[in-house]
Specification:
- Helices cover 42% and strands 7% of the residues.
- It has 13 helices and 10 strands.
- It has helices at residues 2-15, 35-50, 58-64, 84-110, 114-135, 157-175, 193-210, 219-226, 253-260, 270-277, 295-298, 347-350, 379-382; strands spanning 68-69, 138-139, 154-155, 238-240, 267-268, 299-300, 315-317, 320-322, 344-345, 374-377.
- The longest helix has 27 residues, at 84-110.
- The radius of gyration is 26 Å and the shape is globular.
- The relative contact order is 0.12.
C-alpha cells in the first residue's frame, strides 16, 4: 500500500514539472535561427545560383551571350525547360533564398536590427530583378513561403519591376534605422553600410537602364542617381569572394568545374576570342583593329609552342583551341575529347590561371586555385 501511495505521489510531482520530460528539443537543430546565420547563407545562395558552376544559371547563359560554348542543349539556342541549371536556380531561389530574405526582413525589424532588414530588401530586389530578366512573368507578391503559398499566382513583370524600386528605397531607409549592423557575417561588404547604399543606388540605375524603352523609365530619377553615391571602384563591386579552401569547399564553383575535375566544360567561344583579338567576328566589325589587353586574364591556353592537340580540333588559332557555337551534331571534330588541350576560362572570371605561355595543363593547383570572385554588379558596369 505504501508503495502504491509513493508511486502516485511521484506521478503527481512529475505532472507538476511541465518541462521535466521535454526531451524533444534537439540543441543541434534549433527551431530559431540567428540573423548572423541566415544572412551569409542567403548571400551565398544568390551568388551561387546566378553565377557559373554546375548549378549556376550562368552555366547556360554564358553560352547564350557567346562567351562560352558547350556540347549539348545549350548549343544552338536549344536549352530545354528541364535544363538542370534553370530548374536548380528556380528551385533554390523560391525554396531557400527568398524565404531566408523574407525571414531577415521580418526578424530584423522585430529584433530592432533594421540594417539586416534593409540589406535583405536590397538583396531581394536584386534577386527578383534577375528572375524577371530571365523568366518574365513569375510569382512575386505571394512567394517565398512554400507552406502558406503552395501555388502562388504569377505577377506581371512590369508590376514586379515597379515594386522593386520601392523595395530598394525601403531597404536604403532601413540602413539608417540604427541597431547593431552585420559584421563578418555579411560576406559581401562586411557590414559597410556606405557600400550597401552605393550598391543599392547602382542597382536602381542598372534596372532603369534595362527598362529605358518602357513607360517605367524615369529620367529625373536617373539624373538624381547619377549625381549621388554609386559603385565607383572595384573595392565597391557587388561580388562574392571565394577562397582556396577545399575542406570545407569554398572555391569558386566554376573553378571546380573547369580545373579541379580535369574535365573542363567551358569551351571559349571563338566569336568572343576574335572580338577581343580585334579581328572580325562573324559580321561584327566594330572592334576590328583594337586588341583587348585582358586576353591573358580571361583565357588560359593549355597548348604551347610545337604542341599538337589530343585530337583533330574543331577550331584552333595558334595555342587557342575551342569549337564553334552551333557545331553540335554538325562538326565531325566537335565531339573529340580535348580536356588537356582546349583553352579554358582564366584568372579573372573564376580564379584560374593567367596565361603566361607555359601551356601547363590546368589542374587543382593552377593559378589562384579557385580564389576568384563571383561578380554581379561592378564599377565597370556602372561606368
Amino acid at each position: 500500500m505504501k508503495i502504491k501511495i509513493a508511486l502516485i505521489a511521484l506521478l503527481f510531482s512529475l505532472a507538476g514539472c511541465d518541462d521535466f520530460l521535454d526531451i524533444n528539443e534537439d540543441p543541434n537543430n534549433p527551431t530559431h535561427a540567428e540573423l548572423n546565420s541566415i544572412l551569409p547563407y542567403a548571400e551565398a545562395t544568390i551568388f551561387g545560383q546566378f553565377g557559373m558552376g554546375t548549378a549556376g544559371i550562368s552555366e547556360s547563359l554564358s553560352v547564350y551571350a557567346h562567351q562560352t560554348v558547350q556540347r549539348g542543349d545549350q548549343d544552338d539556342y536549344r536549352i530545354k525547360a528541364n535544363e538542370f541549371s534553370l530548374g536548380e536556380t528556380w528551385d533554390k531561389m523560391y525554396s531557400v533564398a527568398i524565404p531566408d530574405l523574407n525571414q531577415l526582413i521580418t526578424q530584423g525589424a522585430a529584433e530592432g536590427r533594421p540594417t539586416y532588414s534593409g540589406i535583405a530588401k536590397i538583396l531581394k530586389a536584386q534577386a527578383f530583378a534577375f528572375m524577371v530578366d530571365i523568366w518574365g512573368v513569375i510569382p512575386y507578391s505571394v512567394s517565398g513561403n512554400p507552406i502558406t503559398f503552395k501555388f502562388p499566382h504569377f505577377d506581371d513583370d512590369s508590376a514586379i519591376y515597379a515594386d522593386l524600386f520601392t523595395l530598394i528605397d525601403s531597404g536604403i531607409a532601413d540602413l539608417d534605422g540604427g541597431g547593431v549592423p552585420p559584421g563578418n557575417d555579411d560576406l559581401v561588404y562586411a557590414g559597410n553600410l556606405g557600400k550597401w547604399k552605393a550598391y543599392a543606388n547602382s542597382l536602381k540605375l542598372n534596372m532603369y537602364n534595362k527598362i529605358r524603352l518602357t513607360s517605367l523609365y524615369d529620367a529625373a530619377k536617373v539624373s538624381e542617381l547619377l549625381a549621388g553615391s554609386l559603385i565607383s571602384s572595384p573595392a565597391g563591386d557587388f561580388e562574392f569572394r571565394y577562397n582556396t579552401s577545399i575542406t570545407p569547399e569554398n572555391r569558386n564553383p566554376a573553378f571546380i568545374r573547369e580545373y579541379a575535375q580535369n574535365d573542363p566544360q567551358y569551351y571559349i567561344s571563338p566569336y568572343f576570342y576574335l572580338l577581343l583579338k580585334g579581328e572580325q567576328a562573324c559580321q561584327n566589325t566594330l572592334m576590328v583593329g583594337i586588341q583587348d589587353p585582358r586576353i591573358p586574364y580571361y583565357f588560359y591556353n593549355q597548348l604551347t609552342t610545337g604542341e599538337t592537340p589530343q585530337n583533330p580540333a574543331s577550331y584552333q588559332d595558334g595555342f587557342f583551341l575551342s569549337m564553334w557555337f552551333g557545331s553540335f551534331d554538325r562538326d565531325p571534330n566537335e565531339g573529340f575529347d580535348q580536356n588537356n588541350s582546349q583553352t579554358v576560362v582564366g584568372l579573372y572570371p573564376i580564379g584560374g590561371s593567367y596565361d603566361n605561355g607555359s601551356g601547363v595543363t590546368a589542374g587543382n593547383d593552377s593559378g589562384m586555385r579557385g580564389a576568384g570572385a563571383q561578380r554581379i554588379l561592378t564599377s565597370a558596369a556602372v561606368d
